[in-house]
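[Help] Beginner question about ligand-bound structures

Sorry if this is basic. My supervisor gave me a protein sequence and a SMILES string for zinc ion and asked me to "get the holo structure". I don't really know what that means in practice or what format the answer should be in. Inputs are pasted below exactly as I got them.
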Amino acid sequence: MGKKVILVSIDGMRPDGFLQCGNPFCKTMMTDWAYTLTAKTVYPSVTLPCHMSMFHSVPPERHGITTNLYMPPVRPIDGIAEVFKQAKKKNAIFYGWEPLRDICRPGTMKHGVYHNALAHEDTDRRLTEEAVDYIKKEAPDFVFLYMVETDEKGGHDAGWMSEKYLHHIAVAIDCVKRVSEEFPDYEIVVTADHGGHDRCHGSDKPEDMTIPMFFKTDRLEAGKELTDVSLLDIAPTVIELAGLEPAPEWEGKSLV
Ligand SMILES: [Zn+2]
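Answer (accepted):
No worries, everyone starts somewhere. Holo just means with the ligand present. The predicted complex, written as structure tokens, is below.
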């Protein structure tokens, strides 16, 4: 019997950024949840290619998106959103960076909220509050909540591991705490898309390629540290938690 799932992507969150951000909830995520600090993302370690791989469980050479510019794929495959839609489940996306609209086909998400993070302060918190309101009202089966300020206002503006970057990670972890406490019956998966170094990312350096992931589910032992995890494992894991069938083309594995 599947459960409802919230997937949170914290853009550009490095494992050491998570560990040093100073939010006390990080400890809970490592003792009460299962986690890894050594998962590998895909190359190029760039936001749209990585999110396409997160949702479609194939590397960029298969989905064809290798930059932040979306091109309709030659051989399209279903992703997380399409699998939920085909199962007649209710799904929703909350995001602060416009190109992410292309991680699912038009009309696939039942509900979508976009705020331009560059034009407003506190976009990550605002999107989280709007997601909380929506989940309370509509009880969707799958919610994707995407935090961009860590990358845009932290990493790119001030530098990876800078004070401002760590501040935005601490805020994003607050948002995770908020949904975790508000919705104890949901399974929660938290991941990054890539890391970063200096004021950029996209290379094959370990700082760009290594990401943390966290899983709040009874199906994994509390405090368990997972090994050999890939970004491609997110979609199969989310779909398994929801009790649905993965798309046949997916290359990752379920972690539960
Ligand atoms: Zn990114």
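A couple of things worth pointing out: The chain has a mean pLDDT of 97. The chain has one domain: 5-241. Feel free to follow up in the thread.
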